[in-house]
Amino acid sequence: MPNPFWIDAAPFRAHLTHVCAGTGLPWPVVALHARLPLGLARQLLDTRPGRQVHRIAPEFGRQVIAIDEASLRELRTASRPPGASRRAARRLVGRGLPPVALARYLHVSLGELGALLSGTTREVPAVLELQLRSLVALSEEGGQAPARQPLRAA
User: Fold this and answer.
1) Is residue 141 packed enough to be buried (19+ CB in 10 Å), middle (13-18) or exposed (0-12)?
2) b/e per residue, 26-59, with b = 16+ CB within 10 A?
3) Kind of pairing, strands 124-125 and 79-80?
4) Can you tell me the distance from the alpha carbon of 28 to that of 86, in angstroms, rounded to the nearest whole number?
5) For residues 19 and 27, what is the distance between their CA atoms, to the nearest angstrom?
6) What pLDDT tens digit does each residue of the chain (154 aa) get?
């Protein structure tokens, strides 16, 4: 019997889809920014027959509806110290991801990625940190990286 306190997932699926499309950011980046479990976001967006989530817990619904495009756009201009990004990039390259592929996915030059990996970068965009964190999280859970999407101007 379904939990009577759970709520319909459709409006939250629509909101998450809209925010991802409106910002050009992959769903894992949006989910991490909103502190949503990646598994929940993946299931919420999965529209394959028999796989679609129909109901979610109210607290997750509140987290999804609180996501706004403006805060996500700010990630492109906000800077962070490079430590976490450097560790994530090194972990991904150490696991066999070619630097060329990583740079292409992140929309950075190979030189910029090299500077991050070598430790000469003083700061990174917040969106880059979330992209790297999402790739690490997906690789650790055996998930697929989101398809490469063109980034839109903020």
Assistant:
1) exposed
2) bbbbbbbbbebebebbbebbeeeeeeebeebeee
3) antiparallel
4) 19
5) 9
6) 556 689 999 999 999 999 999 999 999 999 999 999 998 899 899 867 777 888 999 999 999 999 999 999 999 899 999 999 999 999 999 999 999 999 999 999 999 999 999 999 999 999 999 999 999 999 887 755 554 444 333 3
